[in-house]
């Protein structure tokens, strides 16, 4: 197709009634009630990089002696379209995992977007976020960096390298270049300090590790670590392995999901 062959106004030419298929509209597609447990937090999620961030955070908090926290965890199967059910959309109108309810107050409060949930929990419990203003801002800087950067890895590199039915060199080259640029940035940062935002383990590490740490460890997108020459980012790899060995991280990776059906 040439550029001049594009229509003046794009129209969706593949309508489907699929619960899970991509569509150009938002909102609930069917009625679906979500279970609600007795714990203060109700987490509706999946073991994807964005979902892992929150289970790691919650499990890290559970290991602290001065924090009393509990949650119920339910699986949202995005391949089945659970994220488009009516109750889930009430919590997250954007239909993406993770989504969470804090029902510890007078009325349940909805939380969506993984960065927002991490920041909320860190501030509520005063953990994994520095108290020094400059250090706190640095951690938030990197938290928001991950929010903006990771779509190039997942929706860009991951999609065209691992999930697309058609292998197209141009987008693979484009998103591989950007993914490697990001890894090089992290490698330079981690050459100077032990954690993403400085000397402390923070929510910035929790946000970035499930994407970039697991990527260089060869745990995302088959053969991608070799394709990206992950060994050429030694500081990222050392950090990734060190974070992986944390008990809270392992607990967050191995949580059990309840069913919503």
UniProtKB/TrEMBL annotation:
Residues 1-29 are annotated as: Disordered. CDD domains: GST_C_YghU_like (cd10292), GST_N_Ure2p_like (cd03048). Residues 132-261 form the GST C-terminal domain. SUPFAM superfamilies: GST C-terminal domain-like (SSF47616), Thioredoxin-like (SSF52833). InterPro entries: Glutathione-S-Trfase_C-like, Glutathione-S-Trfase_C_sf, Glutathione_S-Trfase, Glutathione_S-Trfase_N, Thioredoxin-like_sf. Residues 39-129 form the GST N-terminal domain. Coiled coil: none annotated. The lineage of its organism: Bacteria, Bacillati, Bacillota, Bacilli, Lactobacillales. It holds the Pfam family GST_N. It comes from the Bacteria. This is GST-like protein.
């Amino acid at each position: 197709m040439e550029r001049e062959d594009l229509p003046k106004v794009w129209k969706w030419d593949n309508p489907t009634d699929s619960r899970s298929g991509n569509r150009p509209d938002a909102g609930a597609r069917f009625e679906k009630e979500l279970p609600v447990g007795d714990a203060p937090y109700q987490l509706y999620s999946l073991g994807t990089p964005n979902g892992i961030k929150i289970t790691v955070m919650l499990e890290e908090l559970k290991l602290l002696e001065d924090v009393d926290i509990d949650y119920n965890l339910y699986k949202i199967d995005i391949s089945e379209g659970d994220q488009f059910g009516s109750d889930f959309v009430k919590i997250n109108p954007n239909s993406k995992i993770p989504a969470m309810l804090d029902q510890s107050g007078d009325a349940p409060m909805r939380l969506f977007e993984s960065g927002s949930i991490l920041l909320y929990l860190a501030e509520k419990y005063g953990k994994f976020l520095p108290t020094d203003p400059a250090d706190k801002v640095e951690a938030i800087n990197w938290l928001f960096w991950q929010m903006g950067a990771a779509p190039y890895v997942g929706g860009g590199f991951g999609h065209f390298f691992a999930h697309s039915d058609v292998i197209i060199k141009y987008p693979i080259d484009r998103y591989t270049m950007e993914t490697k640029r990001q890894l090089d940035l992290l490698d330079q940062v981690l050459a100077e300090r032990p954690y993403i935002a400085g000397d402390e383990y923070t929510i910035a590490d929790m946000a970035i590790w499930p994407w970039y740490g697991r990527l260089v460890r060869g745990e995302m997108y088959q053969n991608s670590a070799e394709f990206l020459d992950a060994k050429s980012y030694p500081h990222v790899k050392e950090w990734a392995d060190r974070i992986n060995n944390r008990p809270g991280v392992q607990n967050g990776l191995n949580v059990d999901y309840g069913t919503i059906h």
